[in-house]
Amino acid sequence: MRKLLSVWRTTLVGMCVAVSLSATPTAWAQLTGTGKLVPIVWNNGKVYFFQGSDYARYDITQDQADGDDGSGNSYPRAIQGSWPGLFAENMDSAVFWPAPPPGGAENKTVAYFFKGNQFMRYDVTADRADAADGAGRPYPQPISLKWPGIWTDRVDAILVWPVPRNGRTVAYFFRDNQYIRFDVARHRADPGYPKPIAGNWPNFKFSDGIDGAIAWPTMVDGKSVVYFFKSGQYMRYDVGVDRADDQSDAGVGYPAPVAENWPGLLMASSPGTADALAAYAQQCDDATGVTVPDFDVDSPLGTTVPTEHLTPVNAIYPNGTCDRPNVLNGFCDHGSRFRVLVNTEQAYVVAHARKMGLSPGQYGDVAVIQHNKMNGATCFYQGALDDFHLSHNGNVKAPSRGVGNPVFWMTPSQIATSKFPCASCHDNGPIVRSPYLAQITGPNQLPGSGDVTFNGDGQPYSFVGTEFASWKAYKVEVSGNQCNGCHRLGVNNLSNTGSVPNNGTAVDLGIKATDVSQKSKNPHSSDSPIWMLPGQTTFQQSTADAARAIQLCADQFHAGGPLPNSPSCKITQFTSP
């Protein structure tokens, strides 16, 4: 840990999710603390690292993460069930407090955990979170109730300084690019704060903010040090000289990657695969401005995709018909789930879990799309897929934590070279909007629902990551064609040889959307309307003819060959490199 550490991460991408989205700004509550490393030094010779819904334990003397607790219980493990009464996921900050609770009514050893605008107190001796304080007020409590002078809606990190400051024990609270000094004995913030980190913490590497901080309880390279963590990296601060180190005695330069320098914290996986996925997730987060959080597929925050008029009513996947079957594989997939994980004016993250007839808590695949609407940056994650013998558990760890143990996520190279590459379907934009997911209303309504120009000209689209640099999508245009009046229809340079025989919106999906019938779909009616055009209920020959004209043009596309360029057939690349 003083020299090494490996972060647990997990990522998600999809067998090309066919979805449609709408802007419901609920991301903040779901994103608070997500993906961060939240460390806390305990009084048992251990350091605990919380991330999402999991935690790991690091042995200070051995300088490595514990593989298990000596009783056969391995790490990392779920917070829930191991920390009674505590927040179960996505905490913002934690600190082992050097004094009894304020007020004098109680005399105990405690730690504090913060999430959003609330905090909880943990009784270290009893090894459980307190249900209430000495006055009978239940936890969690608002920060404003007990922490005078501290930000009331979020604290990014808390650090008890390991040596006295002017004869006082002080703690530092961090948020974004600022910090507050807190007098522990008086239990209040010092006047004159907050102050900027820049200019007050010499040689500090993360002046725009940190994820976590811990004062190391033993000497490192002969000195007292503090470690600060930020986005998969860490730095070291020399307490004695009050200045951040540039490197360790062993030559580790700061900031340094956590994954390479804290032994054993990384979830076990095939060599290099977790780092590859985590690195890809970091690229995606940087490009889109949002991150994929941990999430539970079965959470009430998600939505079970309606399966209306399933015939017969007890049909078991893949048999039976319904009003709006899953367009991707053409089946009525009863029990599939969908969730909008992030949705802002600039970007969204959506997740789709296909049930595929499996038992409760199990899914045939889980797919995620991460997209920035302003710059077009798009990432696909695919997990729990039979072809790669991946885990089918519905409790999903973020891609930023690696492939998982057991392996849950496909790596970027597996996604890019699979027999069903995502862009072979998603070639007119990140979301293929079909009646299947468009029927969802409420907080998980698809971003873009109700917009007839969704995936239209002028809306950028690009694929993040070197593994996807060869992916290209082209728009197909036929002069006067009504299909081009609303949105792009695409063709792509990818080969699809998998069990999902789609080859893009112009070649395949446009035909399905306008056809006289559709696999596993009940006959077109007001209950089971045809896919295209919007507002159309039953088959219309003119609409089918328009889709067929687009398909005939798309058939002239040959990867690497000249692109048709005439009023009757024009094909133009629209994805940016």
Can you tell me about this structure?
This protein is an alpha+beta fold. It has a domain at 27-260: Hemopexin (4 Propeller). It is built from seven helices and 32 strands. It has helices spanning 27-31, 143-146, 273-288, 412-416, 435-438, 505-514, 541-554, and strands spanning 38-41, 46-51, 54-59, 64-65, 77-78, 93-96, 110-115, 118-123, 128-129, 141-142, 157-160, 170-175, 178-183, 188-189, 195-196, 212-215, 225-230, 233-238, 243-244, 256-257, 295-296, 303-304, 337-343, 347-354, 365-372, 377-383, 395-396, 462-463, 473-477, 490-492, 565-566, 569-573. A six-stranded mixed β-sheet has the order 22-23-24-25-26-28. Strand 17 and strand 18 form a beta hairpin. It is elongated, with a radius of gyration of 27 Å. Residues 1-34 and 266-271 have low confidence and may be disordered.
Fill in the keyword field for this structure.
five-stranded antiparallel sheet, alpha+beta, single chain, 23% strand, 577 residues, 7 helices, Hemopexin, six-stranded mixed sheet, disordered N terminus
Which structural category do the helix and sheet elements fall into? alpha+beta
Q: pLDDT under 50 segments (min length 5)? A: 1-34, 266-271
Report the average pLDDT across residues: 86
Strand percentage, roughly?
A: 15-25%
The CATH H-level superfamily of the domain at 27-260 is: Hemopexin-like domain
Named CATH topology of the domain at 27-260: Hemopexin
Question: How large is the radius of gyration?
Answer: 27 Å
Percentage of residues in helical conformation = 10-25%
Strand order of the largest sheet: 22-23-24-25-26-28
Largest sheet: 6 strands, mixed
Multimerization state? single chain
CATH class of the domain at 27-260: Mainly Beta
What's the architecture of the domain at 27-260, going by CATH? 4 Propeller
What is the number of helical segments per DSSP (H or I, 4+ residues)?
Answer: 7
Taken from the alpha-carbon principal axes, the silhouette is elongated
Q: How many individual β-strands?
A: 32
Distance between the termini: 39 Å
